Structure formats: C-alpha cells, structure tokens
Automatic annotation (TrEMBL):
InterPro entries: LysR_HTH_N (IPR000847), LysR_subst-bd (IPR005119), WH-like_DNA-bd_sf (IPR036388), WH_DNA-bd_sf (IPR036390). Gene3D superfamilies: 3.40.190.290, Winged helix-like DNA-binding domain superfamily/Winged helix DNA-binding domain (1.10.10.10). Pfam families: HTH_1, LysR_substrate. PROSITE patterns: HTH_LYSR (PS50931). Signal peptide: none annotated. Residues 1-58 form the HTH lysR-type domain. Belongs to the LysR transcriptional regulatory family. The lineage of its organism: Bacteria, Pseudomonadati, Pseudomonadota, Alphaproteobacteria, Rhodospirillales. The keyword Transcription regulation applies. This is LysR family transcriptional regulator. It comes from Azospirillum melinis. It comes from the Bacteria. Transmembrane segments: none annotated. PANTHER family: NITROGEN ASSIMILATION REGULATORY PROTEIN NAC, TRANSCRIPTIONAL REGULATORY PROTEIN NAC-RELATED.
Length: 304
C-alpha cells in the first residue's frame, strides 16, 4: 500500500465508477482495477461492491476512505510545510569567522541575513582559527572560515582566497627598513609572537620550518590577534600575518611588514562545513549569503 493507491481508491469512491475515476485520474482502467485488487489483498477484505448503479464502498471501504482522506490531507500539509521551510528559511544558523576576517565580514553578514531572512536567528562566533575546525566537526558551528592547505577529514571545503604571509614588526624597525622581502630563515631567527597551536598561522609557520629543517623562535604565545599586534608595535618582537591583517585596526600605523621569501608562505582560506551532516535550510541560506559577500571581496583567488 502506498499513497498513490490510496489516492486512486478515493477517486473510485468519489466518482462511484472505476471508468469515471480512471478518466479523472488519467490512469488506464485495467491498471486502476489492478491497484484496487492489490489494495483489497493488502487489507484482506473487500473494499467496494460493484452494483448496477456503479461502485459503492463496503463498511470497511468507507472506514478506509475516511482515514485515507485524513492521511492524504496531512501528507499534502506536510509537503506544503516543508516547501515553506525552503522558501522562507527560519531557525538558528551559526557561523565561525576568524578574528582576522571579522572586521570585513561579521557586520555585512549580519545585516544581509537580517534583511533577507529575518526569521533566521544568526549567531556569529569570532575567534582565532585553530578551534574553528573542531567546532564545525562537533556541530557547534554550521559553517566556518578556516585556514590551511592540509587534508581536512570530515569537512567539505570551498576555496575563498590565498594570501602571502609577511613578517610584521614595529614601523620604525631598522631591520625591515628599505627592504622588499625577508628570507624565511632570517625571520625564524627573530623573536616571534605567535598564537599557540593549533591556530592557523602557527601551524603554517611551523610546517614551513619543518620543510626547511629549521626551528621557530617563539618569544611569546598570545591567543589574541589585537594583543599580538599591540606587543609588536611596542617592540616586544615580531609576528607573521597577512598584509591585509597587518594594515587593519588601531595599531596599523605603528606596524610595518615584509613579504616572507625563500620560501614564500601562502595562507589558504576555506569555507567549510561538516561533510556528513546536512545543513538546515537556515544554514544553507546563510551559506549562500556569505558566499555572495566573499565573492565581492575576492578576485582571481585573492583579496580585492
């Protein structure tokens, strides 16, 4: 028994005739008779009586017709309800945005979601990138922007942009003045202020150092981007950031940077969500808005 058979049965009862029901349902009369026979076999009883005036339901057939009409009404209502969820996304959606991207993404995303889908309850979680992967995999975040080039098991990712990493120091630092780049080996010899593991820039620097068979000189570990930049501006050490991040914020005028060379270190930015967990309609709508915002900020794999 399936919903189609129940619809066919209701058509027979409504029209009082298999031939008229077949015309109305646009089903061949022999096929409709076969569906009725199978339905009677499923229930183990006769559902209609054939009379000179047409087809009339038995007592069992009348009970089935009443319940079938209610069930089909509920099915149709459920279909409309589900379609409405897709048409008008509602409910929670949680997005993780690294601190370095928050200034250019959080407010535009919140405004766009609020204006386009006011029934979505958006939550934006900002922080250093290291925990974003764990939070997406655990279900605490529906989607997040993450850094890295290594294989990320359990995640589906989309490339957002790539950017070069720079050694960043105080604006008046004589070591960086008048140069166009700094060798990676020289950068490693300097006292660095970096976030702790597993944050993205720390892992990228250490991975590059491992390939170069060198070690990283970490003077301070600070898991807070603006505080790292403030300490560098005060001359407490150097850090590694993208030029985009170094040039943003209250300390930007007190910092300077050089691209790292030999080898160049690139940071890959990805938009990720859990591969084995379907996103809700609210999360999918938020994902679409975030993707649109990111496409306006990037070009040819880099930032505009």
């Amino acid at each position: 028994m399936d919903v189609r058979q129940l619809r066919y049965f209701l058509g027979i009862v409504e029209h009082g005739s298999i031939s008229r029901a077949a015309d109305s349902l646009r089903v061949a009369q022999p096929a409709l008779s076969l569906h009725l026979k199978r339905l009677e076999e499923d229930f183990g009883c006769q559902l209609v009586l054939r009379t000179a005036r047409g087809v009339v339901p038995t007592e069992s057939g009348r009970r089935l017709a009443q319940r079938a009409a209610a069930l089909i009404g509920q099915m149709d209502g459920l279909r409309d309800e589900v379609r409405a969820v897709e048409a008008v996304p509602a409910g929670p959606a949680t997005v993780g945005i690294p601190t370095s991207l928050g200034p250019v993404l959080t407010v535009p995303l919140a405004l766009a979601v609020r204006r386009t889908h006011p029934q979505i309850r958006l939550r934006v979680v900002e922080g250093l990138s290291g925990h974003m992967l764990e939070w997406v995999l655990s279900g605490q975040l529906d989607l997040a922007l993450v850094f890295g080039t290594k294989e990320m098991g359990g995640l589906e990712t989309e490339l957002v942009a790539r950017e070069k990493l720079h050694l960043v120091g105080p604006a008046d630092d004589p070591l960086l003045r008048g140069r166009s780049a700094i060798p990676f080996a020289e950068a490693l010899s300097l006292p660095l202020i970096l976030p702790g593991r597993p944050h993205g820039v720390r892992e990228e620097v250490e991975h590059a150092a491992l390939l170069a068979r060198a070690s990283v000189t970490v003077a301070l570990e600070i898991d807070a981007l603006e505080q790292i930049k403030a300490l560098v501006a005060e001359g407490c050490g150097y850090t590694v950031l993208s030029d985009r991040v170094a040039r943003h914020g209250g300390t930007a005028e007190r910092l300077t940077g050089l691209p790292i060379a030999d080898p160049q270190i690139d940071r890959t930015i990805l938009l990720a969500h859990a591969a084995g967990r379907p996103m809700s309609a609210a999360a999918r709508a938020t994902h679409a808005i975030l993707t649109d915002i990111l496409s306006g900020l990037t070009r040819d794999g880099g930032w505009r």
